[in-house]
């Protein structure tokens, strides 16, 4: 008896997933201004009227994707642990995982920042608060002698830039490291080890 109800719901979820994937591809390549609802509809295999049956406009999709990036980043820093090596090591791994698993979503965020970040205005207050919480934790580790004195903002932004580079500049990485192999990716585990060694040892933190 539940099959007739389930099938329309499954179809709707499938179509919404296709719309989201199409929006990610278009926004990562063209940004908000350069993306049209017609392009999203065509990539999702829909007509424009069909697309607007499911969404109000491209701005709604764009904001949802920006929110998803911020939400993913929110839970990556384990503020409950007192071991800086574990916290920062896990943070680096999580950032690398996202760069490999969701490169297009990362590029949407970076493109928005390069365009001035006007669509991030509502997200900045919470982002500043979360960053300050991380800064306070790092300063606490420094005060307890668990790591060398460093500028926490510089450390955090170094982690962001080094990890997101593999999403935002994936083409450059392939061209410089493995030209002629379009599907090539760096060894994720080796990359995590190298970045942890570089960043954590520089802070005076032992790495496994």
Structural write-up:
The radius of gyration is 20 Å and the shape is globular. It is built from 10 helices and no strands. Helix 1 (3-30) crosses helix 2. The protein folds into 2 domains: 3-55, Homeodomain-like (Arc Repressor Mutant, subunit A, Orthogonal Bundle); 66-202, Orthogonal Bundle (Tetracycline Repressor, domain 2). It is mainly α. The N and C termini lie far apart (56 Å). The mean pLDDT is 91.
Give the topology, please.
Elements: H1 3-30, H2 37-44, H3 48-54, H4 58-74, H5 84-101, H6 103-114, H7 124-143, H8 152-168, H9 170-177, H10 188-202
Helix pairs in contact: 1-2, 1-4, 1-6, 5-8, 5-10, 6-8
Question: Unreliable stretches, pLDDT < 50, 5 or more residues?
Answer: none
Assigned CATH architecture of the largest domain: Orthogonal Bundle
Shape: globular
Strand % is under 5%
CATH superfamily of the largest domain: Tetracycline Repressor, domain 2
**In terms of structural class, how would the helical and strand content be classed?**
mainly alpha
Count of folded domains: 2
Biggest β-sheet: count, sense, barrel? Answer: none
- What pattern of helices and strands is seen along the backbone? HHHHHHHHHH
Quantity of strands, as a count = 0
Cα(first) to Cα(last) distance is 56 Å
Relevant terms:
208 residues, globular, mainly alpha, 2 domains, Arc Repressor Mutant, subunit A, Tetracycline Repressor, domain 2
């Amino acid at each position: 008896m539940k099959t007739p109800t389930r099938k329309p719901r499954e179809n709707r979820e499938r179509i919404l997933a296709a719309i989201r994937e199409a929006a990610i591809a278009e926004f990562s390549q063209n940004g908000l201004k350069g993306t049209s609802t017609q392009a999203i509809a065509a990539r999702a295999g829909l007509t424009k009227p069909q697309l607007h049956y499911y969404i109000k406009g491209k701005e709604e999709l764009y904001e949802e994707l920006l929110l998803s990036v911020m939400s993913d980043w929110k839970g990556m820093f384990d503020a409950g642990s007192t071991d800086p090596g574990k916290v920062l090591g896990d943070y680096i791994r999580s950032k690398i995982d996202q760069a490999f698993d969701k490169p297009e979503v990362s590029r949407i965020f970076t493109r928005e920042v390069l365009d001035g970040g006007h669509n991030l205005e509502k997200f900045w207050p919470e982002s500043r608060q979360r960053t300050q919480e991380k800064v306070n934790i790092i300063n606490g580790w420094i005060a307890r002698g668990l790591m060398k004195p460093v500028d926490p903002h510089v450390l955090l932004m170094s982690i962001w830039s080094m990890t997101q580079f593999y999403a935002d500049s994936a083409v450059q990485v392939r061209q410089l490291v493995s030209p002629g192999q379009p599907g090539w990716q760096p060894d994720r585990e080796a990359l995590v080890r190298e970045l942890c060694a570089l960043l954590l040892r520089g802070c005076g933190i032992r790495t496994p």
